[in-house]
Design brief:
heterodimer; A: about 475 residues; alpha/beta; Rossmann fold; 3 domains; 7-stranded mixed β-sheet; 17 helices; 19 strands; about 15% strand; B: about 210 residues; Dna Ligase, domain 1; 2 domains; 4-stranded antiparallel β-sheet; 11 strands; about 30% strand; globular
Chain lengths: ~475, ~210
């Protein structure tokens, strides 16, 4: 790893953190961050725990906040400090940073706003803080950002409301506010994340630096990006190409309307809108484009938890005919191929002795509404055992005899037996199928409440498989 | 930013070995008559003015000109209508060109502030901005990428021989795309359109080129 990137370890795996700008006012950012550092979250959640490292606070006017002793300045702290989180008014940030440099901190997160985003004056100040960080060879996140969260060590160096569950998806967001709401959502829907980075004005570290660090992060299996703009497009492409060869990257780009300005001079000018060019850059660097926030996280979930689909040749198992047809429609629209079941496969299904006399005998394989876990087991294992079937969408609608939990166990066992073939589940419903769906997801089998999302998830796994071949 | 005139455009296209349907400049009806002797009809005539970007908007293009007297009449017509519809434009005369046969495609380039030069390919002609059936690649574009660009547009079947049409030479189009990508090494070229490029079974030729330099 590049030594510049190696230095990011101090940001994501610090042994000690100081908050400069700790506040007693419970409605302030300086209080929120301290509470997050001390207990993991502002709003209680079952996923939060206190950060395991040492936490320090700087506030010259307070003795103690939230049980943390306040120091007048970072210089007054005796112990070594890895990470400095700064939330003080913009104009005193340079001075605070110089103290931190003296103290030999290894990383900066500048939460404070009032820099490049406010105009030329702020930009000047921003250049100043970047110069301080760079001359000290110390990486800097921000300014004007929410901060970062690293779930494996319960580090919540942000003013986000809480901490999401630990999991395989890293989320890099150019918007702090989106990250906030995503955390709330992730807690509700048990969506696991390894790292959350709000990088604000990206004055020093930019999205490509984080990608490069995540490349070697064992906790991260897929990377979701929310992007408003990229400064150095060519650098992004170079890094994204390398990283996406190992870990899937999915991006949602805001600001899609075509730009006009100088475009009138040529057809190419007016047709090559900014979003078209972003999409092209993403495609050329192996980044998958999501259409909206929900899709961003749906695709990341599928890619982080399931293997790529080796061939575009999948099957659907369902206990509801209508859902099977809908699923086939969505797959077809996306170019996901439902393979024709061979005669031999049907014979194998018949020989299990478990199939309903009226089962569909074709793909989608409708095993009929009264299917019990036994029928699911026979169908799923038979199909996964076939060389020409490379992935499976499993749909479960809820009838009186349906057993979502036992079905989940069947599916989990099948996945263990065929770990190289992706499984996507659709437990349609809510109240009574929720527990089974949770069981599936806790065993890394993505579940969606709608067949269109399942089709899209399988599409991305097929796409990932195709990308691997190029 | 300004548009290169025809002479400089031709020099540049030659430098990059790009196939171009050579125009003959005329600035009087007498010269039209003289030039007609050396041309095989049908031909196309286009208004010659650096001030006019979209020639068909001022009725500055005539196609399917069948003979010399047609050509003389066409010259008078396009000059008249261009003067009327673009009174401020300096009109130098017109270009006479062989009427190339084939399917119209467009190949273009623009420089993006973040990503640098981007190459565009699409189905061409006057409806290009309405159809918006285009594909893009960020440079450098090699042959494999160029072929992918061509194959990824929706109207690709129009090129590959749908409904009994003769397939056009995808290789010849790819060749122009790759050379266009190479051209971006010239940093003065800010934007360009090759529209139309006429593609037929064996070749592809640039019929009209608009190169914007900075």
């Amino acid at each position: 790893m590049d030594s510049k990137i190696k230095k990011l370890d101090a940001l994501f795996n610090p042994k000690s953190v100081v908050l400069i700008g700790a506040s007693r006012d419970s409605r302030s950012v300086g209080y929120g961050i301290l509470k997050n550092l001390v207990s993991g979250c502002f709003f209680e959640s079952r996923y939060c725990k206190p950060f395991g490292g040492r936490v320090y606070a700087v506030n010259p006017n307070a003795q103690e906040i939230l049980g943390v002793k306040c120091h007048p300045s970072i210089i007054d702290i005796k112990e070594e400090i890895d990470l400095a989180v700064i939330a003080v008014p913009a104009k005193i940030v340079p001075k605070i940073m110089k103290d931190c440099v003296k103290k030999k901190v290894k990383g900066f997160i500048i939460i404070s706003a009032g820099f490049g985003e406010i105009g030329p004056e702020g930009k000047k100040l921003q250049n100043e803080i970047v110069a301080i960080a760079r001359s000290a060879k110390t990486p800097l996140i921000g300014p004007n950002c929410l901060g970062i969260i690293r779930t494996p060590i319960y580090l919540n160096a942000s003013f986000a409301p809480s901490i999401p569950p630990r999991g395989p998806v890293a989320f890099l967001s150019q918007s702090g506010a989106i990250a906030d709401s995503i955390i709330d959502w992730a807690i509700e829907y048990r969506y696991g994340m390894s790292t959350l980075i709000s990088y604000g004005n990206r004055a020093d570290l930019d999205v490509h630096d984080f990608l490069e660090w995540l490349y070697d992060d064992p906790e991260t299996k897929a990377i979701a990006l929310y992007i408003e703009g990229i400064e150095d497009g060519r650098k992004f492409m170079e890094v994204a190409k390398k990283v996406s060869a190992r870990k899937p990257i999915i991006a949602l780009k805001a600001g899609r309307t075509a730009e006009g300005a100088s475009a009138i001079a040529s057809h190419t000018g007016s047709l090559a809108g900014s979003y078209e060019i972003y999409k092209t850059a993403f495609r050329q660097s192996g980044v998958i484009v999501a259409d909206n926030i929900e899709e961003l996280f749906d695709l990341a979930k599928a890619l982080a938890n399931q293997p790529a689909c080796r061939e575009n040749s999948i099957a659907v198992v369902t206990n509801g005919g209508g859902c099977g047809v809908l699923c086939a429609d969505h797959c077809s629209a996306l170019g996901v191929k439902l393979v024709e079941l061979k005669k031999n496969t049907l014979q194998k299904l018949d020989r299990t002795g478990k199939m309903h006399p009226a089962y569909s005998r074709r793909n989608p394989l409708d095993i009929i509404g009264d299917a019990l876990p036994d029928q699911y087991e026979a169908a799923i294992n038979t199909l996964l055992g076939e060389d020409y079937i490379h992935g499976l969408i499993i749909i479960q609608t809820l009838q009186t005899m349906t057993d979502p939990e036992k079905d989940a166990k069947v599916i989990i066992e099948a996945h263990k037996k065929y770990p190289n073939k992706p499984l996507i589940c659709v437990y349609m419903g809510g109240q009574y199928s929720k527990k089974g769906a949770e069981t599936l997801e806790s065993h890394h089998i993505p579940d969606f409440n709608d067949v269109s999302k399942a089709a899209k998830a399988m599409w991305v796994l097929v796409k990932r498989g195709e990308m691997g071949k190029n | 930013m300004k548009q290169l005139d025809m002479d400089k455009t031709i020099i540049l296209l030659k430098k990059y070995n790009l196939p171009f349907s050579k125009p003959i400049f005329v600035n009087s009806q007498q010269k039209v008559a003289k030039a007609s002797q050396g041309l095989s009809f049908p031909i196309v005539m286009k208004i010659a003015s650096s001030d006019i970007i979209h020639k068909s908007d001022v009725d500055g293009v005539k196609t399917c000109i069948k003979n010399a007297s047609d050509a003389e009449e066409s010259y008078a017509q396009i000059v008249k209508s261009a003067r009327k519809k673009a009174p401020k434009a300096r009109i130098k005369g017109a270009y006479m060109q062989k009427m190339e046969q084939g399917t119209e495609v467009i190949i273009g380039m623009k420089r993006d502030a973040q990503f640098g030069p981007v190459i565009m390919f699409g189905i061409g002609g006057v409806f290009v901005e309405i159809m918006k059936d285009t594909s893009f690649s960020i440079t450098p574009v090699d042959r494999k990428m160029a072929l992918e660009m061509i194959k990824s547009i929706k109207s690709y079947p129009m090129l590959s021989g749908a409904r009994g049409r003769k397939p056009v030479s995808i290789d010849a189009i790819a060749d122009i795309i790759v050379k266009t990508s190479k051209m971006t090494e010239n940093k003065n070229i800010m934007e360009l359109d090759f529209n139309p490029v006429m593609a037929n079974e064996s070749s592809a030729v640039i019929v009209d080129a608009r190169i914007i330099v900075g």
